[in-house]
Structure formats: C-alpha cells, structure tokens
Amino acid sequence: MAASYNSIGTVYKSMGEYSKALEYYEKDLEILKKSLPANHPDLATSYNNIGSVYDSMGEYSKALEYYEKSLEIKKKSLPANHPDLATSYNNIGLVYDRMGEYLKALEYYEKLLEILKKSLPANHPSLATSYNNIGLVYQSMGEYSKVLEYYEKSLEILKKSLPANHPNLAISYNNIGTVYKSMGEYSKTLEYYEKSLEILKKSLPANHPDLATPYNNIGGVYKSMGAYLKALEYYEKSLEILKKSLPANHPSLATSYNNIGLVYKSMGEYLKALEYYEKSLEIKKKSLPANHPDLATSYNNIGLVYDSMGDYSKALEYYEKDLEIWKKSLPVNYRSLATSYNNIGGVYKSMGEYLKALEYYEKSLEMLKKSLPANHPDLATSYNNIGVVYYSMGEYSKTLQYLEHALDIRQRSLPSNHPSIKSVKQSIETVKGKLKV
Questions:
Q1: Planar angle of CA 430, 433, 437, nearest 5 degrees
Q2: How many C-beta atoms surround the C-beta of residue 394 within 10 A?
Q3: Are 67 and 92 in contact (CB under 8 A)?
Q4: Residues 6+ apart with CB under 8 A from 329
Q5: Model-level pTM greater than 0.85?
Q6: Cα–Cα distance for residue pair 133/113, rounded to 1 Å
Q7: What is 386-404 written as a DSSP string?
Q8: pLDDT tens per residue, range 214-269
Q9: Which fold would CATH assign to domain 288-371?
Q10: Which position among 116, 125, 303, 308 has the lowest Cβ density within 10 Å, counted as fewest Cβ atoms?
C-alpha cells in the first residue's frame, strides 16, 4: 500500500500538483513509520520525496527539514561514502543556494564532492557537475578567481569524457566566458564564447534557438567594448535565428530587438534606436500583463532616447508610464522608483522647470535612502543632482549644503583619487566663490 501512495505522489509531483503530491507522500510516510525500523532506508527515501515537493514549492525551510531527516537516516544506515549520501548533500546544498546562504551551500556541495571523488573515476561527468555547482555558488558570491578554478576543473573533465562537439562542453565554455565578462576581461570572454558558438554550430541545425544565445552573448561583449558595428552584426544574427524559430510575439524576440536598440542608442542613432525599442515594446504589450516590470524597462528606454533627442514632452510621457508601473509593483522596488523619479527630475531640469525638478529629485533621494546604505555612491549622485538645481536657481547656500553631503559620502565610499571626488570639490569651490560675491 505504501508503494502505491508513493507512486501516486510521484505522478502528482510530475504534474505540478504539489498539495496532492504531499498528501500521498505523507500517507506513504505514515505507513512506513509504523511498519519499519526508525533508520530504515525506505524512510529516508520518503522524507526525501516530501522535501523535494517543498523544494519545488519554494518552501525552503520545510524542504530542509525533510531533507535533513532523510540525511540523518542515511548517515546511520549507510557507509560514509555511499552515493545516496551524495544525493542528500546535493539536495541540501541546492536549497541553501536558492536561499542565498552561499557558505552553507558550499559546505554541503563540498561534502558531496568528497564522496564523488572517493567513489567515482577521476573523469566521471558527475564530478564535472559537482565542480560546476561549486563554481556557480562562488559566482553568486562574486569570487571570480574561485569561480574560474572550479569551472576549469569541470571543463577539463568534460573534455576528457565527452566528444569534442558535445553541447555540455559549449555550456562549460559559455560559463567561463561569463565569468571573464564579469571581470571585464573582454578578449578572454570572446575566446570562450566563440568556442561555445563553434561547438553549437557543429552540433545543432542552423536555425536552432540555442544558437541565438551565443550570438547574443558575443554581441553583448562587443557592445561593452564599444565595438558597436560588431555588436550589431552578432545581435542581428541572433535576431534572425529567433525570427525563424519562435512565434512572432515570443519574449526572446522582444529582448533581441531591445538589445539592438541599445546599440543604436549608444551610437547616437536615435531614430533607429526608437524603431527597435518600439518593436520590443509591441511584443511585450501583447505577451505580458499591463504592469509587468519588463514593460516599465521598455518605457524607460524609449524615454531615454527622447530625452537624448531633446524631445522632453515625449520623454516625460514615457518616463511617467514607467513610473506608473513601478508605483503599482509589489513588493515596492525602491531602486526602480528612484530611477524613474530621477529621470523625470532630469527632464524638468533640462526644461528649466526647477521646482518640478526638485520635487522629483527629492522623491528619488527618499527612495534611495530606503533602499541603500548611508554611504552608497548613488546617494551622493542624488544629493549632487539636487545641488545642481539649486545652483541653477541661484540658491547658492542650498547648493553648498547638498554638494557637501555628496562630497562626504564619496569620501567615505570611494578611493581618494576618484574623479567624482575631484569634480564635487571643484563644484564646491565654484559655489563658495559665488557666495563671496
């Protein structure tokens, strides 16, 4: 009977009906608890199954409770290097990773790795996965040298155990490339992204959607390098594949149009930027709820282009649409609200409407104060913006007050030779000169 409840629970879990899965898994567990010794391996399996459902539901504390019960039984009933213990360590590590508790995740992933190293051949693909998972945690922690160390160990195993054009090798090269991109080492990034692309070109049909990803990634690197024509070349290859392989309103097409728009904006080709941003927006409007954050991003991007063109009424129209979405968003996204208020303040400043500019800059500052540490450089920028408006209004004592706030934060948060510190010091001297007149 217990086996039947377990089987039914597994079917409901695969269907995504988690409450039903729990109902049957718990019936299975109750029967096993009454009929088996407390440390029987089948009880460990039952606890693990319930933990996996809570994991899928995002109830991580409950998932840990059951995974740890499963682990305790396994530790009492199995040899120290048994593969089933490795599975438990992996499951617990994954939950801690999802919870953002990276040191705990590493603790369990490393226990898993130790078992795998003792029980598997040195080039077994499971070892590659284990090294990769540890690398992912270090990436979340921003420890890039450690990330590379583990990703490269994973890659070495895959090169020895898989055919030269296996898709898993492409993923490994891509992961290493992404680390180098985070480090700003763009030539190394391109080297690894291009290796990934070459493998996928040999192993996939020419219009396979997975090929769009490396083209897009390479385009992003060239954009970061300021090589805009090369960026367009790769972004357009990515777009062509997506247009042939996906429905016309697929969100990935919206992303692709947006990326091309970003490049044209960076090149100062504002009409072309608008063309692509508007294509992106049209897809999002058809495929997303009216208050989705991705729509806010599109409205903001279009607003930025009109702002750069000096078309302030159109810029305000789009910035305000962006703001309305963030005002309705839950939980409150203070950073995005701050950006929206700041952008609108900037437009009013450019239009010479200084009181309106102050109103929005001050709202931006309030949002930043709610979301950032007191010494964050973005707060200094906000104080600086308000100071600049007071300067334009001829209110030099108020200007000085805000610029000194900005300087104080920058001196506490930036290196002493940072250009932003020099810039605000120069502004303060200018204002002091005005006050002496």
A1: 140
A2: 10
A3: yes
A4: 291, 293, 296, 336
A5: no
A6: 10
A7: HHHHHHHTT-HHHHHHHHH
A8: 999 999 999 999 999 999 999 999 999 999 989 999 999 999 999 999 999 999 99
A9: 1.25.40
A10: 308
